[in-house]
Amino acid sequence: MKNTKMFITIKSAAYKAGQILLSAQEIRNSVTEKEGVGNFVTQYDLNVQNFLRKELLADFPDAHFVGEEDTVHEDALHGLAFIVDPIDCTANFVRGMNHSAVSIALARDGELICGAVYNPYRDELFSAQKGEGAFLNGDRISVSERTLSEGVFCFGTSPYDRSLRARSLKIAGELMDRMQDLRRFGSAALDLTDIACGRVELGFECILQPWDFAAGALILSEAGGIATQLDGSPLTLDRPCSIVSGNRKAHAEFLALGLSE
Ligand code: IPD
Ligand code: CA
Ligand code: CA
After folding, report:
1. In which band, very low, low, confident or very high, does the pLDDT at 190 lie, cut at 50, 70 and 90?
2. 244 CB within 6 A, ligand 1
């Protein structure tokens, strides 16, 4: 594993940010609601993002910083850009579910080059650099070989956009007919890393933001898997898009079902 400075920086920042999640207290007292049903933000989302901005830009002062909690987002497509979700799955965080993650990606001119997703509750640090493979706590990981019929899937319900609810459940229903079972864990970033390390075969969500998937998508592709939009087109780092991710067999089988409409 080649430990470049940028790789070391994002892994260390993700780990330190995770300690803030672990030390959180009285989380429910720090909740406010953002736009969209059930879209919570806590003081910890803001604290972790501020911490990450300082930590990452200290080493790479010229990089752009795209963080979920900013109201105006910087350019993710030119030069170096950090794409950061300080707490992926705030809803789990607020409920004490112990299944949330810090997600940090680094892109250069619109191409993902480094990613780290840290689940502090299990002390699991997933990481990847472009062309160098994917790792869990330093050990190389890879996707499973299972086909759709042998596999389980996880999915996101696009909770902040109720107009996508029926469509999400329809796709989930189609997959239930063809796969073994489904899971709804709550963190899009951890769904991607669960697929990357072979725990789950497929995942989808009708709309996700770049900070939800950027780090996880690189980790997945470096683990031998693939993530695209539901119609097979590439993910977009400068705007939200749909996503289907999986090992290559399950992903190809999903696309062949033509469920993107
Ligand atoms: C959300 C979680 C959730 C997914 C949503 C995301 P947030 O992130 O990843 O699983 O279904 O689409 O927005 O808002 O808790 O960081
Ligand atoms: Ca998120
Ligand atoms: Ca978040």
Report:
1. very high
2. no
Helix (H) or strand (E) holding 40: strand 40-42
- Find the mean pLDDT for residues 124-138: 98
Looking at all shown ligands, the one closest to residue 93's CA atom is 1
Ligand 1 atom nearest to CA at 100: 15
0.90 surpassed by pTM: yes
> What ligand is nearest to the CA atom of residue 186?
1
DSSP symbol at 182: E
Query: Strand locations in 89-219, DSSP E?
Result: 101-108, 111-119, 124-129, 134-136, 139-141, 152-155, 181-183, 202-208
pLDDT in tens, 194-235: 999 999 999 999 999 999 999 999 999 999 999 999 999 999
Closest atom of ligand 1 to CA, residue 186: 10
3-state DSSP assignment of residue 76: coil
CA of 139 to the centre of ligand 2 (A): 25
